[in-house]
Amino acid sequence: MLIAEELLLLAHDDLRTAPSLFDDAPYRLAGALLVELVIAGRVAPAPGGDGPVVVLDGAPTGRDELDRVLDLAAATPRHAAELVDLLARHVERPLLDGLVDRGLLRREDRAVWGLLRSTRWRTVDGPAVAALRRRVHGVLLDGAAPGDRTAALLTLAEGSGWLRPRVPRERRREADARMHELAATWWRGSPVREAAGAVGAAVAAVVSTVTLVLPTAT
């Protein structure tokens, strides 16, 4: 499962109100796709984010979402922040539809005030979702050491509020502190992590710009 898909499953957990279409979710998802390719050794941002993202291996990945990122990065030199902004425009719906097709999300269409149609997605309980929740809980509350993909997932979710409904109220500060710690420290320690960190910094910059106008989910 892609990191971006795991983000969506957490964001649309059926214990909470799903994120608004007008929040910063698309930018976090776009960043997750780019980080996925960095961890896989397919792309690398310039050191310090001062240059365009370089495609190291443009072979098909088997996932259309990732192949589109590779194609965009190869077609025109773009910095990580530019790629995140471009990808965010069309990233969310294909990922949502794919999760629905695999039975991991449920689509709900309803009328609002009897006039307007509204579409929502809800996370469907099952083995894959249960394993994701256990993994996140273990890192945030039980002291488990995260792998690179889990650490990237949590750092990209930091500040979104998406995980709070699955954390006992009395331990939410503890979970928030753990996410903040990961966001501040995980990117160090290896060339791959540092490269992923450059993407993470680009996502954070774009998200902070968006949230000056549009609030994140709480």
Structural class: mainly alpha
CATH class: Mainly Alpha
Helix content: 40-55%
In terms of DSSP E residues, the strand content is 5-15%
Total domain units: 1
CATH topology: yeast vps74-n-term truncation variant fold
Number of helices: 9
Poorly predicted sequence stretches spanning 5 or more consecutive residues: 212-218
| Order of helix and strand elements from N to C terminus | HHEEHHHEEHHHH
Q: Determine the N-to-C terminus distance.
A: 25 Å
User: How many strand segments?
Assistant: 4
- Architecture (CATH level 2) name: Orthogonal Bundle
Overall 3D form: globular
Radius of gyration: 17 Å
How would a crystallographer describe the biggest sheet?
2 strands, antiparallel
Q: What's the arrangement of strands in the largest beta sheet?
A: 1-2
Query: Mind telling me the CATH superfamily name?
Result: yeast vps74-n-term truncation variant domain like
Query: Assembly state here?
Result: single chain
Q: What number is the mean pLDDT?
A: 85
InterPro entries: GPP34-like, GPP34-like_sf
Pfam family, one: GPP34
Organism: Krasilnikoviella flava
Keywords: Golgi apparatus, Lipid-binding, Membrane
